[in-house]
Amino acid sequence: MPKAFICGCAGLALSREERAFVRESDPWGLIVFKRNVDDRDQLRDLIRTFRDSVGRADAPVLIDQEGGRVQRMAPPRWRACPSAGAIEAGLSPFEAESAARLIARLIAHDLSEVGITVDCAPVLDVAELATHAVIGSRAFSQRPERVAAMGRAFAEGLLAGGVLPVVKHLPGHGRARADSHHELPVVEASRKELERDFLPFAELRDLPMAMSAHVVFSALDPVRPATASRIVVQEIMRGKVGFAGLIMSDDVSMKALRGPFDERARTIFEAGLDIVLHCNGELEEARAVASVAPELSGESLRRAGAAMAARVVPQALDLDEAEAKLASIKKTLGVS
Q1: Based on CB atoms within 10 Å of each CB, which residue in 26, 129, 248, 319 is the most buried?
Q2: Contact 213/241 with Cβ under 8 angstroms?
């Protein structure tokens, strides 16, 4: 069985050392970032090399391709898509949901074309006026019911294109006033207030995968961030929200977390998450994560299998028509 972690890589191709690492440690998947992306042929070769190295032709390959400012595959080689917030703010509810579905379908087309099978989207965080810019326009709305509706439409578009969605950041990052890439946010809201933020995740609890938040929720666990809190994972993510699919951590190399990387990963597994995500391509850090990552087994293995089984053959897409619709949407929104 593969090990319960996802790794990144440093550049446009796997080095000899990276190939040996993934061959020996057998991570469940690979995540790619802008530093790993040049053009279609290069990206296909990178993905093929990873899958050859782990010996699994269907090994998951992930990316963050949301639209707006989070587009790892970017112009001019790939089309630009508007942000979640812009879509919701600029169109009627019905039009916005149709646009989210279409945009996600086009994103899925781009990802499938190079062999990427998982998109870390949609963002289901409920925005506030004071939401930190790290989320900002990545959030669909300040209204939980609209976040749920738009998130559902976006996920449907990805699934129709044969790409698996990952809802994030469970149980909600919208109240955070700090960027978890750089420091640990602490949210002091009451449990009743937090339950409003759980709604989109509960509405989409049938989706195959989710990503956790590196945020301390004082009303739930005043000590540990949600990612590493057994209380939050078991009582909230699995219990209150009822998310039954695979849950991966956000990137363990983010500065919201502290300590050696093996200890970070061990704490996350002890909390009950299925997969640890390590993104930055630093090989020594990845080795530390791999050293404590168990082989996928039990419920985690079942969830991983169920997630992969949710992928379908992409539905037919009239690309010219879809691109014309996207151009019309962008014109209406006033975005390029």
Answers
A1: 248
A2: no
Cα distances (Å, whole numbers) of residue 79 to 41, 72, 151, 152: 17, 11, 21, 22
What's the pLDDT tens digit per position in 282-331?
999 999 999 999 999 999 999 999 999 999 999 999 999 999 999 999 99
Which residue type is seen at 189?
A
Encode 35-74: b = buried (16+ Cβ within 10 Å), e = exposed.
Answer: ebbeeeeebeebbebbbebbeeeebbbbbbbbbbebbbbe
Given 197, 221, 250, 274, the catalytic residue: 250
DSSP SS3 for 102: helix
Q: The tokens of 46 are what? A: 């990178």
E strand segments, 197-331: 209-212, 216-217, 246-251, 275-277
pLDDT tens digits for 112-140? 999 999 999 999 999 998 999 999 999 99
Q: Please indicate whether residue 250 is annotated as part of the active site.
A: yes
110 included as an active-site residue: no
For the beta carbon of residue 165, count every other beta carbon within 10 angstroms.
Answer: 26
CA dist 278 and 41 (Å) reads: 25
CB-facing half-sphere around the CA of 234: CA atoms within 13 A: 9
Find the helix or strand (DSSP H, E) in which 150 lies: helix 144-160
